[in-house]
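Kindly go through the entry underneath: sequence plus fold tokens. Please state briefly how this chain folds according to its tokens.
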Amino acid sequence: MENLNVKIYADGAVLSDMLSAYESGQIKGFTTNPSLMKKAGIKNYEQFAKEVLAKITDYSISFEVFSDDFDIMEKEADRINSWGDNVYIKIPITNSLGESSIPLIKKLSKAGMKLNITAILTLDQVRATVDALAPGTENIVSVFAGRIADTGVDPMPVMKESAKICAEKPGTELLWASSRELLNIFQAEECGAHIITCSPDIINKLGNVGKDLEQFSLDTVKAFNKDIQALGYSVL
């Protein structure tokens, strides 16, 4: 793992999980989103964000705007930007009506904000995003490789081409989003992504990297046997 160039970011909104990942030394940044906050039961967005930022001051953390209206998104972005120097503002590539966020992205980037453009699934969206980013700014382009794979399409060609497009604008990092399994980390490395977001479930599997498969087979059988004993009955 130490030879990988791709940075692993923890994806979630449970503070204890975030701090555990932070203390592990394996994580280089964090992302959150509205769905994860809903799942975690977050009631006060700014209070949660500031609690996180008080404890994690040296790693990138992305917080997303909540509005579906571009004028309000702009105001939210300005508020989120004030929370800390390590904050990236997540902007969805469109609103829920399918209207492009590119004009807003251009405006926020020109103002020097660090942006994380999210919910990207096509190369056209990658191209439009990178073209909209102001030179000399720091940004993340989040391509949802896992969701591309969910449609039965191999995301690798899209991610490799996305890496080339992002390389045209220094300071722009490609993020492999919506990871589904540990293998995705090595796929992200292969395609030239700079970052991959991983859920706590995937992060907890990092200890399996390089594990002997014979031993892994035995461990699996032992786990089955433990469950058999807990059930307390047999076939015969």
Remarks:
- The mean pLDDT is 96.
- The first strand starts at residue 7 and ends at 11.
- The CA atoms of residues 58 and 156 lie 31 Å apart.
- The beta strands are 7-11, 29-31, 60-64, 87-92, 115-120, 139-143, 172-176, 195-198.
